Amino acid sequence: MRRSLVNVRRGLRWLILLVMRICYRLTVRGRHHVPITGAALMVCNHVSYMDALVLGGASPRPVRFVMDQPIFESPWLKWWFQLVGAIPIESERRNPGSLRRALEEVSQALKNGEIVMVFPEGRLSPDGEIHTFRRGLEKILARDNVPVVPAGLAGLWGSWTSNEGGQPLKKWPKRFRAKVSLHFGPSVDPRMTQDVALRRYLEARVRVLKAAALEDLRH
């Protein structure tokens, strides 16, 4: 059952990539930094609701995403999120036990040798900039010491799924075939540093990768 589901997700990855290339002039660099096999945690800046689709299509392997529970529960899209293996999470204040359940599902995915993607800022960027990475990475890596692949994404700020110009998804699209760039960086061994220092290091790496992605857009 699990093998067949993995094969379905591989097929969906190609479909997502095709759609992303139709919608955007997408440049992807550093795919070779994503491990060919084995578990990994992927981290990226977060500017729009399309980020997950771009990353999911661009990654050479299927990626499971940690996402907000209210979005996961969307009556129109929940079936899709379940199919691609999204992992819902909500604050403990709103839903006691949600964080523990999400961490357990993330841990199980990593133990199965999968790639799990998190947006460490914890929310869509309100201004297109990268904001402080929140706690949570440490809890994941304390359970499963896996490589962390940083990524930087540019070009989606200003889209109808970003916070630019009003609430995402509540305005008309203004652009088609916009230039979008995604850079994957070398994986980071979480054993090199601990806790807050690790978060800050990963945040710095994502900033560098985003800057390189922005440079792509200028050419």
Structural write-up:
The protein is α/β, with parallel strands linked by helices. It has a single domain, classed as Glycerol-3-phosphate (1)-acyltransferase. It is 38% helix and 17% strand. The protein has seven helices and seven strands; from the N terminus they run αββαβααβαβαββα. It has helices spanning 2-23, 51-58, 69-72, 78-83, 98-111, 137-143, 195-217, and strands spanning 24-29, 40-44, 63-68, 87-89, 115-118, 148-154, 178-184. Strands 1-7-6-2-5-3-4 form a seven-stranded mixed sheet, with helices on both faces. The radius of gyration is 16 Å and the shape is globular. The model has no long low-confidence stretch (mean pLDDT 88).
In short:
This protein has 219 residues and is of the alpha/beta class. The chain contains seven helices and seven strands, in the order αββαβααβαβαββα. The chain has a single domain (2-217), classed as Glycerol-3-phosphate (1)-acyltransferase.
